């Protein structure tokens, strides 16, 4: 085959052209800083190693450690860019999976282009988190289990076992693809015309795929979740004991099933531009009824139901604000699995249209991806802005030496640890994640640092004990008991609690200090809107500080200063 023909085949038949464009776009979109709580945690783990929050996610952590050499500046930049590379691999693998399900290249390219340009996909797949690797693992399963998959017999069962094990070593939600994965193994057994060897190969490969969990025994502690010293500890972490074993997220208010299902339908609809999603579900029904491989399509439908509506009903997370972002990431697997039926719907359209050549259709798909990126860019720039990191950095810079800082929000908790462990900022400060203080292992870790805390909200007794250490005590706005029971004053976005009888700075001194702090704050980024998740939360903190100062100034008889402070609050609040 001529070189140009071979390159054209790779570019169009295997989706390489789309992959190249996605690569450029994703690396450009990957932020160079932390943008959320989990993102900060994984950026830290990529830099120094450790165990992530339950279920540990060892495969992804090891990947971040293996790519920590990338010459991209900050630890966050390296972790985010490395994750973008996984996302590009996912696009290419999903294209191959669609082809293995008997779908022509142009239809596969259109489906992959729409999903790759979906707003939540663009965001989550370009920031350090486990979901890009989860999408890649799911695409591998879909590829290997497909009726026209690349392997047969024992090779198919072994590859599926390995992919399943590795996928579960990244994210347990991959288990929701069990129907199509098991069907692939059954098909492999039938192709091998024997039972024992293919099943043994699948089981052995599955165990090998789970080996990354052994890393949790030797992972360093400074940035880690609970210690893992026994297989019982490992089971507790993997099975999410700290979250109550059966819960996906700790705490939170119960969400009605109808609300969860409606939120999931809206999420999938937005990612697939609505009509392709509906067309994909219709095509899935047709394939289940008429296709020669309809049993395989039935298993694909079962997998989609499990990782889509069933999982959404069980997940029960909020459908607005930060909760919608957190829950939306966890439900992206549904959109990924739906890619094959959506591609099948495009295939049905292609069969009835000969007016456009296959290559022209694929060039159109690449252009559509670029258009989707342009449309999503304004909000993506806001949620991926420096708002989160800048606010945490300013807070750390403002607190006195050797402070004990008690915070609740995960972006401040993990973000502060990122700046300390990965960036070397303020190692003298002890950050206490108040939510984790409910857990014995975390209290023991703090006790070794001379800090004793019990519970999410500090009692007056806890506060007195911390003040007795002689170290400055800084708390966030959730610590209402201490803020009202002891003297204090604002420090950046937090509050300093003082011992009884200590001198409280004058209102003028506090105002001057806050002006100096905010004058040095990095605000050179798009101002977030109220629904821009963690970026909006950061700016609500900024505005809250100045609203409090405005009220204090008004009460002190300084109306002009109060009006000026309120104006600053309005300028800093989410737009």
Structural write-up:
The chain has helices at 3-13, 16-29, 37-48, 58-66, 75-100, 105-116, 119-124, 131-145, 153-168, 178-192, 196-209, 215-218, 231-238, 257-271, 275-290, 294-315, 321-330, 332-337, 339-351, 358-383, 387-398, 410-421, 440-447, 460-467, 480-485, 507-519, 533-555, 559-572, and strands at residues 404-407, 430-433, 473-475, 488-491, 494-497. It contains 28 helices and five strands. It has two domains: 11-222 and 252-380, no CATH class; 387-572, no CATH class. Helix 2 (16-29) runs parallel beside helix 20 (358-383), helix 3 packs across helix 4 and helix 8 packs parallel to helix 10. The chain has a five-stranded mixed beta sheet with strand order 2-1-3-5-4, with helices on both faces. The chain has 575 residues and is mostly helical. The relative contact order is 0.10.
Distance between the termini: 58 Å
Largest sheet: 5 strands, mixed
Helix content: 55-70%
Give the low-pLDDT segments. Answer: none
The rough form would be described as: globular
Rounded mean pLDDT score: 90
Beta strand %: under 5%
Category from helices, strands and their pairing: mainly alpha
Tally the beta strands. 5
Q: Identify the strand order in the major beta sheet.
A: 2-1-3-5-4
Number of domains: 2
Radius of gyration: 26 Å
Give the helix tally: 28
């Amino acid at each position: 085959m001529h070189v140009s023909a071979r390159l054209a085949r790779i570019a169009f038949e295997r989706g390489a052209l789309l992959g190249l464009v996605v690569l450029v776009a994703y690396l450009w979109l990957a932020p160079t800083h932390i943008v959320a709580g989990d993102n900060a945690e994984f950026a830290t783990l990529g830099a120094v190693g450790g165990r992530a929050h339950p279920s540990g996610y060892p495969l992804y952590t090891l990947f971040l450690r293996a790519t920590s050499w990338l010459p991209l500046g900050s630890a966050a930049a390296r972790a985010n860019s490395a994750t973008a590379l996984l996302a590009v691999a996912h696009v290419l693998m999903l294209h191959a999976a669609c082809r293995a399900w008997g779908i022509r290249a142009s239809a596969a390219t259109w489906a992959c282009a729409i999903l790759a340009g979906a707003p939540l996909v663009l965001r989550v797949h370009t920031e350090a988190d486990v979901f890009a690797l989860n999408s890649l693992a799911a695409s591998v399963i879909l590829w290997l289990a497909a009726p026209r998959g690349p392997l047969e017999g024992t090779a198919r069962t072994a590859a599926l076992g390995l992919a399943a094990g590795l996928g579960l070593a990244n994210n347990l939600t991959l288990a929701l693809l069990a129907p199509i994965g098991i069907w692939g193994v059954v098909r492999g057994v039938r192709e091998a015309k024997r039972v024992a060897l293919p099943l043994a190969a699948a089981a052995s490969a599955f165990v090998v795929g789970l080996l990354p969990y052994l890393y949790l025994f030797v992972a360093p502690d400074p940035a880690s979740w609970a210690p893992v010293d026994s297989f019982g500890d490992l089971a507790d972490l993997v099975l999410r004991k700290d979250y109550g074993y059966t819960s996906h997220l700790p705490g939170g208010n119960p969400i009605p099933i109808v609300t969860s299902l409606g939120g999931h339908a809206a999420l999938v609809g937005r990612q697939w531009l609505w009509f392709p999603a509906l067309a994909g579900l219709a095509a899935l029904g047709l394939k289940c009824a008429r296709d020669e491989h309809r049993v395989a399509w039935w298993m694909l439908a079962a997998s989609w139901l499990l990782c889509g509506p069933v999982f959404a009903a069980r997940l029960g997370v909020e459908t607005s604000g930060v909760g919608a972002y957190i829950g939306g990431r966890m439900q992206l697997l549904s959109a990924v699995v739906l890619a094959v039926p959506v591609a099948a719907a495009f295939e049905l359209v292609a069969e009835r249209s000969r007016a456009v050549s296959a290559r022209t259709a694929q060039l159109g798909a690449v252009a559509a991806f670029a258009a989707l990126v342009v449309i999503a860019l304004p909000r993506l720039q806001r949620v991926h802005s420096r708002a989160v990191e800048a606010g945490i950095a300013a807070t750390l810079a403002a607190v006195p030496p050797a402070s004990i800082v008690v915070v609740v929000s995960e972006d401040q908790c993990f973000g502060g640890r990122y700046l300390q462990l990965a960036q070397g900022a303020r190692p003298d400060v002890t950050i206490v994640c108040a939510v984790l203080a409910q857990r014995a292992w975390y209290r023991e870790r703090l006790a070794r640092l001379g800090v004793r805390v019990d519970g999410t909200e500090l009692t007056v007794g806890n506060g007195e004990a911390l003040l007795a250490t002689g170290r400055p005590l800084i708390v966030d706005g959730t610590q209402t008991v201490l803020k009202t029971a002891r003297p204090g004053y604002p420090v950046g976005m937090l509050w300093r609690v003082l011992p009884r009888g200590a001198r409280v700075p004058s209102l003028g001194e506090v105002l001057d200090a806050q002006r100096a702090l905010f004058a040095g704050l990095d605000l050179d980024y798009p101002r977030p809107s109220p629904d821009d998740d963690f970026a909006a939360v950061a700016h609500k903190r900024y505005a809250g500080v100045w609203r409090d100062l405005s009220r204090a100034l008004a009460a002190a008889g300084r109306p002009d200063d109060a009006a000026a402070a309120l104006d600053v609050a309005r300028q800093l609040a989410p737009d």
